[in-house]
Structures are given as structure tokens and as C-alpha cells.
Amino acid sequence: MTEQSLENLLKRVADHGLSITEALATLRTLPFEDIGFARVDHHRPLRRGLVEAVYCERKTPEQVAQIVQRLAEKSPRLIGTRATPDHFAAAAGAVSDLKYDPASRVLWLDREPDRSRRDGALIVTAGTSDIPVAEEAARTLDLAGHAAPRLFDVGVAGVHRLLADLPALRAAHVIIVVAGMEGALPSVVAGLVAVPVIGVPTSVGYGVSAGGFAALAGMLGGCSPGLAVVNIDNGYGAGCLAAMINSLTAPSDGERS
Predict the structure, then answer these.
(1) How confident is the model over 159-209, as pLDDT tens digits?
(2) Which domains are seen in the chain, by residue range?
(3) Tens of pLDDT along 135-167?
């Protein structure tokens, strides 16, 4: 349940459009709803300002469908990560307006697509192969109410590509940098800007890259201050952190509506 939906509920009670008994029935499942195999957190948007997320990996399609259905009854927005086409097919059978991106493996619901987004966040990738993880971060930001412009394929093998977009980097309030291989790009970006940088190591790379551990170690050992690092391929975590940081900044003159 979002702050807006709770406000609407209270207004309906005040206007005698909804009885107190009916309102109590709606609120009874706060802060969570126990459905046996999961405790669905309806209170998260109110408590943390973030939509509830479903980590779909290792869940059956039927479990994902039931969780998504319960969330969609209470909230206009939700996100599911690491979702397969089977997860989406089952969930879309329960929630018809659900959407899915097979590249990033994200399913989501957004019943308020025309709401305003706060400017200030920026997503950067080292290579094209890093885009799926970046898109998971972008979708997370968007559902949290933040615009998510992207700069793709500006890695250190051709750093002049990054420098061509230096004005965009310096205009941002928080930057997510997604990189595999040796994971050098976040340190480079952090050395060019005066805002927080969130490094996302990806599992992209040949043998010694070790499924993203080389990039993770490189980012954690980076020398540029102001760089924080999330887990390997964790676009969702980066998106959440960027949204929280960006929410602390004053809305820019260019905030979109």
C-alpha cells in the first residue's frame, strides 16, 4: 500500500464512501499478509518508500503468481527480478496488466505510468553486455519515481566515449556505473564527479573475471572516494540505493511530470 492509496482510503471513510468496517478489512493485512510459503510485505512502500520486490529465482511460477496477485491487490506498482518467461506467464494469468523484459529478466506492474519522475539519477555501462543489469536498475528507479537516463558502452577501452558525456555526468546527483571484466569504470567516473557513485560489478568477462569477482574486487579496492559497491549483477540493489540518495536532493528545475 502506498501513501497515496492510504490517503485515498481515509478520504473515502471521511466522505462516508466507505464504512469503518470495510476500511479495517483493507488495513488488516498491514504490515504483511501470510500466505503460507511467503509473508507478503504490503507495508514496504509506506515504511521505506520503495515498491515491494519479488526475487523470482528458485520460486515456482505458481508461487510467483500468487505473490504478485496479492501485491497487485494493494499496490499500483511492483517489481519481480530474475524472472523467467514461465514466471511471467503464470503471473500475467493472475494480473493481466503485468509487463516483462526478457533481457533484464524483470517483470513489473505500473498502474500510474504518467506520474512525475524526479531527475538527478544517471546509469552508465562499460559495455553493451552490461545493459541487462543496467536495465534492472533503471526499472527499479522508474518504479520508485525517478527518471533513469542511460549512457551505454562508455568503458575504459575507449575512455574518450565517456569524456564526450562529461556534462551529463557532472549534472547528475547520483550515478550508477555497471561494469564487468576488471570493473575499472566506476573508479574512473568517481574521479570525475562530485556526487555519489554506485558500482555494480557484472558477471561479464572471460575466465579470470571469475563470474564478476574480479570486477567486484576491483571496485571494492578502487582509489576514488565516494564510490559504493553492490553485489554482482545486483541492478535492483543499485537502483534502490540510487533512489534513496536522489530522494534526499532538492527537485531540479527540469523534473519531469
Answers:
(1) 999 999 999 999 999 999 999 999 999 999 999 999 999 999 999 999 999
(2) 3-110 (no CATH), 121-247 (3.40.50.1970)
(3) 999 999 999 999 999 999 999 999 999 999 999
Helices (DSSP H) in the chain: which residue ranges? 3-14, 20-27, 44-48, 61-74, 85-94, 131-143, 160-163, 166-171, 185-190, 213-220, 235-247
d(CA 33, CA 38): 8
What pTM was computed for the model?
0.84
Listed in sequence order, the residues at least 6 apart from 221 whose beta carbon sits closer than 8 Å to its beta carbon are: none
Give the contacts of 49 (CB within 8 A, at least 6 positions apart). 144, 243, 244, 247
| Beta strands in 71-120, from DSSP E residues, in sequence order | 77-81, 99-101, 106-110
**pLDDT-based confidence at 27, cuts 50/70/90?**
low
CB atoms within 10 A of CB 251: 12
| Torsion, CA 243, CA 245, CA 250, CA 252, rounded to 10 | -50
Rounded CA-CA distance 27/185 in Å is 46
Nearest to 78 by CA among 44, 102, 104: 44
Question: How far, in Å, CA of 27 to CA of 108, rounded?
Answer: 24
Which of 183, 176, 235, 241 minimizes the C-alpha distance to 211? 183
